[in-house]
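Re: weekly structure request thread

Next one in the queue (310 aa):
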Amino acid sequence: MMDHQSPPNIQQLLYDSLEKTGDCVGIFDDQDQLIYCNEQMASLFGQSINDVKGQTFAQLVEYCYLYNKGLVIEANNIHEWIVYANQQRRQSSFRNFEIDLHDNRWFLATERVIENNFIFFYATDISEKKQTEQRLKLASQELFKLATTDSLTDSHNRRYFLEIANIELQRNARSGNDCSILMIDLDHFKSLNDKFGHQGGDLTLTQSAKTIKDNLRPYDIFGRIGGEEFAVLLPNTDLTSAFDIGQRIRNAIEEQTVDYLAHKIRITASIGASNSRENELSLELIMSRADTNLYRAKNQGRNKVVASSE
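Done, posted below.
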């Protein structure tokens, strides 16, 4: 006689499966009390399964907020946060969102409004996915920095300076504002490099770039064009103001001292300035005029600022 296995108890099977799954499962009743959850769900609130059952959603998240356990609640006022959260929870029959925990885990959570206005809650661990996203983000940021930054002076490289300066120039032109350009060249830098070597020269370039940046406004655009030459785009700045900024930079470079080994390195800079007001000039032409004024400053004895619209 053949033995026939009795059919499995489907409800018990489902219950056992929910208890063993690595995902978080819970049910809130119409009064927002947690009437069922598994151990993984309880861990979202930093407590044991016996502690969380019967608590309301508000009590659970307030515990997390007060004791810095379980869910990360970013709020200045927890009660206002709870009011806002409760407004969202039953606004639609289904919603999903990401949550993070104080132990650095991340979950993708879903809430579905079911029969009798109960809420079925489900969340799955996406920590590995978030970590991968973060690594990719950091790698992308690093690649972007490598592609746009001069590694020695930590300023924009030539290509990126031209790109964003051109965008800013066009934006100012549409607003009816003019921009100015400063072209800055360190005087007698080749002789300094020959005397103190590349390390002394590099240190001078680095400190001079910092000195220039320290004398600019937050919205000015600064880049190393090549060698010992730098450029600055000054948005919404007339030629007189550009001359004044150039003089401030020239004075600061002249006053700086670069400490290298036992040496005190001093250097000066020549600066040319031009402006975009006339005929909405292109970036290339404004830079060319500023470069012409830079060489006029060199020819007039260096350590000078020359500004003109011609």
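DSSP finds ten helices and 14 strands in the chain. The mean pLDDT is 91.
Next request, please.
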